[in-house]
Amino acid sequence: MLIEFITAHRQDLIARARAKVAKRLAPKPTEKEMESGVPLFLDQFVETLRRSLPSATTTMSRSAATHGALLLSRGYTIGQVVHDYGDICQTVTELAEELDAPIPTEEFHALNLCLDNAIAEAVTEYSRLRDESVAASETERSGVLAHELRNKIAAVQLAFGAIKSGRAPIAGSVAAVVVRALYGMTGLINRSLVEVRLDSGSARSQRVHLHKLIEDAEVEGAMGASFHGVSLSVAPPDHAIDVTADPQILAGALANLLQNAFKFTHAGGQVSLRTSVAKTRVEIEIEDECGGLPPGKAEELFGAFQQRGADRSGLGLGLFISRNGIEACGGALRVRDIPGRGCVFTIDLPLLALAS
Question: Is the domain defined by 204-350 classed in CATH 3.10.20.30?
Answer without folding.
Answer: no
